[in-house]
Amino acid sequence: MRGSGNIFRIVFNAVVFLLLETAALVMLSHNGRMQGIWISRGVHAVQAFLWGGAEDIRDYFSLRKQNRELAEENFRLRNTIREYGYLTGVNLQTDSVPEVIGGFRYILADAVKISNNKQHNYLIIDKGSEDGVEERSGIIAPNGVIGIVDAVGKHFSYARSFKNSGMVVSARIGRDGPVGEIMWDGMTPDGAVLREIPHHIPVHQGDTVYTSGYSSIFPPDIPMGITGEASVVNGSTYNIDVRLFADFGSVRYVTVVNNIDNREISVLETGEVGDEE
Amino acid sequence: MYLLLVLIQILVCNFINTGPYLLLSLLPVFVLCLPLNVPAVVLMFIAAVSGLAVDWLSEGIIGLNFLALVPVAFIRNRMVVLLFGKDHAERTENFSIRKNGFTRVSAAILICQSVFLLIYIVADGAGTRPFVFNLVRFAVSLVCGYLISLPVFNMLTSGGK
Fold it and tell me: Does residue A88 lie within any of the structural domains?
């Protein structure tokens, strides 16, 4: 009984001590300019440490789910390669990955920070200029477009998320269907709108929407989502609801795609604009 | 009596210019000399109020003495148990150099001064001053603080006999 009283007293003393010291630090940060900067730096360091710790714990407990997803994806890829080898008679080696495929360079990256609850969302990846990331590189996941790189540091890059009210990506219904532009609907976490689909082309619910490849940022045929209801706009085009495959809340591993001909295409585009002017 | 001592500390802060390397504070020894039957929580509040009073009425940054003095009050009772023994602390006898010995009292003063100076100097520098400067300031202040604290301690404890 006496022991528990002692413990209570020690805890109570410690709590009072911490409260008083916190009050002193608050006073100090309001009254000394240098002290204010020093304390806020310390607070940020503690926050970063705690945030990093929480991230590590979250990662640890999501390992099982991620492993299962990776195993499933691996299985699908192996089947695709096997099928491709069977159809073409080519024996493909899966232990070496070519750096450039179809004019795009692929770089694996970790999303170290991602915002999801704003109208203009962003993400930060752990690859930068030293890893070959360039401005206007695309960011994809196995199940969709994630964003476009806006600023590149040495070891990290800042990207606009697809969940950004100003971001538009060229997309196609099916592998060879009509092409339009897709953008986030700005209201739901997995909702998007596919616009500019000509009125005369029949559209079915449940069709898969892929990237069209008519952009210098994203390669073609990345699955993005499934079509939903369509509505006619101005009597000439469809606006089609799309349910996105990508779960932005659990994005962790992403792939940066660099179009190796991007500079040449940009120069040509700039030249064309110059001619028009 | 305690209020008078805090007033002395305010006068020391305001009228004795000791230069950048010397920080003269008697507050730790005042807290050390408070009666042993005062619980740690009350001790911490007394320290907080004294520190705030000195901060407010002298030209320092408000919160600095408060920040440095509360830890001294927090460890005071536990330190007394460790240095002077549990029996002494439980009997709530006031201590003195003659009763408890010069070495133990010196150790208590040095610990209190060290805790106070360490926090004060680090917070005052706010990461902008070189380590060597802080180290020299700490050493000089500790030696001077100890030398001044000894007679103050003797005076305070002999008065309560």
Answer: no
Domain that holds residue A120: 102-277
User: Residue A114 and residue A163: Cα distance in Å, rounded?
Assistant: 11
The domain total for chain A is 1
**B57 in helix, strand or coil?**
helix
Strands, E, within A185-252: which ranges? Answer: 191-198, 208-211, 223-233, 237-244
Inter-chain contact A13–B64, Cβ cutoff 8 Å?
no
- Whether residue A166 lies inside any domain: the answer is yes
- Spell out the residues 6+ positions from residue B82 whose beta carbon is closer than 8 angstroms to its own: none
pLDDT of residue A199: 83
Residue A273 lies in a domain: yes
* CA dist A120 → A12, A52, A147 (Å): 45, 24, 11
**Could you tell me the pLDDT band of residue A6, with boundaries at 50, 70 and 90?**
confident
Q: What pLDDT shows up at residue A183?
A: 92
Closest in B61, B70, B71 to A31, CB measured: B61
- Chain B CB within 8 Å of residue A18 CB: no
pLDDT tens digits along B38-54: 888 898 898 898 888 88
Q: What is the pTM of this model?
A: 0.51
Q: Is the ipTM of this complex over 0.90?
A: no
Q: What is the CATH number of the domain that holds A272?
A: 2.40.10.340
